[in-house]
Amino acid sequence: MNCASVLCLAYFIPAAMGQQIDAEQKAKQILDTSGVKGGLVVHVGCGDGRLTAALRANDSFLVHGLDTDWVDIAKARVYLRARNLYGQVSVGKYDGRTLPYRDNLVNLIVADTLGNVPTQQALRVLTPLGVMIVGGKKTVKPWPKDIDDWPQYLNKADNNAVAKDSVAGPPRYLQWVDRPTWCRSHMAIPTVASLVSGNGRLFAIEDAAPPDNPFLPAAFRIVARDAFNGKELWTRSIAPWEAVTMYIKCQPVQQQRRMAVVGDMLYCTLQLEGPVAALDAATGEVLKVYENTSPTQEVAYDQGILFLNVGERFPTSAYNIVKLKGRPFVEGVDPNGPFHGAGFKAGYAPEIRDKANPVSTISAIDPTTGRELWAIRDIANYTAASFSVKGDYAVYQAANGLFCINPRTGERIWAEKKSIVNAVGHDSLTPGTTPNTVVITDDKVFAVESSRPKKIIANAKSTVFARSMADGRLLWQAPVQGNYESSCDICYVGGTLWVGGHNPTQYDVETGEVIKKIVQEMTGPMGHDRCYRNYITEKYFINSKTGGADFLELQTGKEFPNHWTRGGCGMGVLPANGLVYSTPFSCQCSMGAMFQGMNAYASQPGLKTPNQPITVRRSVRLEKGPAYEQIENRQSQTADWPAYRCDGSRGGIAKAEIGATLSARWETKLPTKPSALTSAAGKVFVSDIDTHTLYALDSNTGETKWTYTAEGRIDSPPTYYKGMVLFGSRDGWIYCLRASDGTLAWRFKDLPDRLIGAFGQLESAWPVSGSVLILNDTLYFAAGRSSYLDGGIFVYSLNPRSGELLKSRSCYGPFDESSGFPVGGHAGFKNDVLVTDGTNLYLRHRAFDLDLADAAAARHIVASG
User: pTM for this one?
Assistant: First the structure.
């Protein structure tokens, strides 16, 4: 960071006035001055927590207070909990020198003074355009020149799906993770329909309905998140959207071109067949609905003009084409109903039937006034998403040819009139997911034309025609292949043309001669590429030969395959903001290793090889509390339930008899959502997950005996052992408390303090499950998320009484020794609650012996997914 490029302003609150105004007024003044309207706020030196609490102006803010004094932290927690704020506002301890956050994570830093924290350290954790207000001075971190946004469907309105981003690269670190965790299954509509990003925000059209039953009615909405930490800023319902019965591999391209971000404005449609609207991108407030623009099928923006495709949509109906494999899903139902009788027709949006010859309009709108500048009406069979505009030219394709117009007037410049055919999808049998690609540059247009073979194949064979932008003159043509169930990749990079298909191929744009082909070595374990268009960068071609997100260095052809993460059907992965975004998937391929959720990944600068080690600086920290070596040894009893699902096998079988007739003895309400329970020594132990708090309740009355607050979520119940309560937290620490009164005995951690965004809060890059394992007087646990992220998963054994580290190991990869590529299938793994059969330890399908060495897996209760 070049400090000379940082914008510094100042405002001052006189000391006398500062003593008079309350925390709410001061917070409002700080937020108004900063201009920050949501995201992650860090209050350094939080003291009693009053200002920290007030900085959460509304639900779009997540606030984290830092202090070096445990006494102040305790006071702040009491204050926040009394106001039911804890979780969305939380406080933690730091060392006074290093801010414990991932790079580019924090939107606003507030402090009277940074103390021993260097300014460069504060700038490191700020997002681009993030703000720091320290001692009355405002500092704004500039937007780096080497990262790019992605404000429209194919990046910009020229349809060139290439990010000018040299930072986004092969995923090696998790920046943030959010819901939805899973996509609907293959039988129904994709969970995420569109994804764009601008001005530090990420916008998605996504389904909020539970994916557990793929036939449930949908709940589509626009979701705005902070692009760098994943904090949800606002949501707005889209009703109605597409019918749930749309097959997952048949995502209509026109539905992906429904949003365009321009600064602090989002242009979008708020229903499937409705007008375009302008929303405040920061708040979601509807500022304007444009008259006479319904039904808008596509939204694009260039040089101060909104370009819309309005009218009948491109043929795209692919409803209810699930594969029965010989029998209905539910016996005794009407097989002619949705999903062959298994659906809920009354709750679905209506299915829209295709028109044989759809007619639509391309119109240009002044976004400020809503005035129509020009329109080309009665276009028959317009090719979906073909309209592209750049500078002085705009081009679109229809069934009767390719047309070039002036984007300011709509006047025709030239036309290549001919009959043009679009490929049809292998499953959909419509062209809605496979329309011809049209991309323009300053002086050329590259337009795909297809044909209708006798046998429909998943990767359509087509031709790309390169023409002069000035007069439409044909320069050259070449065969191209579509992606699996989707359109061709046509990408203009560095004065050359890159085309996707079986082997990404580079063409000379003047002659059409092949410059280079990249023949990938790792092409499995998936049997085919994913069903979406590929989005790439100026450095990497990103495709999905392995079934994941595979990065190919354009200059060298070097491969960085990542079979363990992928984008959802129809959507893919998005490179923007120096990160790579992946959406929830629905496949079972490589399930043991596949990382699920809505994710943002950061790369490793200077990554040379796929198996390059990721350095994680480890240093043992054992903090001793008042109860250290002051715990009476009390064995658990037969009637106890001392561990998650009773014992280390996680079998869930009680060792004592339970009566057949049950009745409620007591009920206790917790502030947010409870974990599962454990019980021993006359107490029931349960964590209130989102307030980071462990509760000990009297097992006879439900009365709260004590509570303990960690620095992150406690996702599952603790383990009771010989008078101790032991648990992990999403803050990355392991805790040991005295069971009788909740006093800290010790806490352990040897990984760095590095927080990321996780499901609307902060968590360590290496979280620990709450439920730890005790076996043979040894405490076992694992820290991390995926064996392919953040240096992998770290497995430990400790002395439960003293917290002494006995053994540890890291598990990164695995990678093939000869190629350096990740080992496909289920060789990698994800973190979870440890399980034991008494001989080995298991993290899902990965097995370790009691010395933490690799072991052969045996049957156990936790599945690998």
Answer: 0.96
